């Protein structure tokens, strides 16, 4: 067995002993040698777009397509970064969404409450932590993003992603909030997402339909408090079976108000 294979075997064995998907980042970094994709946030604020969706909801496919097409419509990573968070509360209607997590439904309820709302629904789009019902109106969204992008960023983020084929990935993120008044309540979140997912739905409201998903969140870290106005995150992961991470998003958000201070995305293919 070569030195590299021996290191990889010990890494996999360590994962099994830990019984979890996260290990110190050095383990994976020393076994892959894959080029790293890295990004650093700029002076202005990039918007965070969250789509709460479900394969069990027949009104969700148009919103899924809308999120998939944002980049083609000119909404680049310098303007907004999008995430699709699949919720689990439609799973009882005959079709269980394979990408749904109860934690995403919890986050949705929390964000609704912070925004002064009382009802979670799908599809629901949130822009910088606030319910945004005019998402299908391109001119309205463009104006909303223009206003957000004009604001000076209140946080600085660096994000790096290294993908080790279809089984492993590693992510590094650091965030700084210069304003002491804002730093105490700020938290870092990091999500790894996957594009090009196809599901042939055989039951429920979307029975007989093949759904395509992009920006589907597969791994989620946060909220992670900033100590002294700064935080550094380092994680190596074993990915879900047959998953192939396409990119990562990091954002800093105020936990009491829901305000997003800055967001940043990076592609796994640079």
Provide a descriptive summary of the structure in words.
- The protein is an alpha+beta fold and 270 residues long.
- The chain is 23% helix and 36% strand.
- The protein is built from 6 helices and 15 strands.
- Strand 3, helix 3 and strand 4 form a beta-alpha-beta unit.
- Helix 1 (3-18) packs antiparallel against helix 2 (25-32).
- The longest helix has 16 residues, at 3-18.
- The protein is globular, with a radius of gyration of 19 Å.
- Mean pLDDT is 87; it is low at 1-33.
Sum this structure up briefly:
This protein is of the alpha+beta class and 270 residues long. Helices cover 23% and strands 36% of the residues.
Task: Considering the chains and any ligands shown, give keywords for the structure.
alpha+beta; 4-stranded mixed sheet; 6 helices; 15 strands; disordered N terminus
Helices and strands in order:
Blueprint: H1 3-18, E1 22-23, H2 25-32, E2 37-40, E3 47-53, H3 61-68, E4 80-86, H4 102-114, E5 124-127, E6 130-131, H5 138-149, E7 156-164, E8 168-176, H6 180-183, E9 186-194, E10 197-200, E11 210-213, E12 216-225, E13 230-238, E14 247-254, E15 260-267
Parallel strand pairs: 3-4
Antiparallel strand pairs: 1-13, 2-7, 3-5, 5-6, 7-8, 8-13, 9-12, 9-14, 10-11, 14-15
């Amino acid at each position: 067995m070569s030195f590299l294979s021996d290191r990889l075997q010990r890494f996999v064995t360590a994962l099994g002993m830990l019984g979890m998907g996260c290990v110190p980042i050095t383990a994976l970094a020393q076994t892959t040698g894959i080029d790293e994709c890295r990004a650093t946030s700029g002076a202005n604020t990039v918007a965070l777009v969250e789509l709460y969706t479900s394969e069990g909801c027949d009104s969700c496919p148009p919103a899924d397509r809308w999120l998939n097409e944002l980049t083609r419509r000119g909404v680049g990573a310098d303007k907004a970064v999008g995430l699709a968070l699949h919720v689990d509360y439609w799973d009882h209607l005959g079709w269980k969404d394979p990408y749904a997590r109860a934690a995403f439904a919890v986050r949705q309820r929390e964000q609704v409450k912070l925004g002064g709302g009382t009802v979670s629904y799908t599809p629901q789009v949130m822009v910088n932590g606030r319910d945004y019902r005019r998402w299908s109106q391109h001119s309205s969204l463009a104006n909303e993003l223009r206003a957000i992008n004009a604001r000076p960023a209140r946080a600085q983020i660096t994000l790096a992603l290294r993908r080790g084929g279809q089984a492993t990935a590693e992510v590094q993120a650091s965030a700084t909030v210069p304003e002491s008044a804002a730093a105490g309540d700020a938290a870092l979140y990091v999500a790894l997402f996957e594009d090009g997912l196809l599901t042939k739905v055989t039951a429920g409201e979307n029975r007989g339909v093949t759904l395509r998903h992009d920006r589907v969140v597969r791994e989620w870290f946060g909220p992670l408090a900033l100590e002294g106005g700064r935080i550094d995150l380092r994680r190596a992961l074993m990915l879900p079976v047959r998953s192939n991470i396409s990119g990562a998003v990091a954002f800093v958000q105020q936990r009491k108000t829901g305000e997003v201070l800055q967001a940043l995305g990076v592609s796994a293919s640079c």
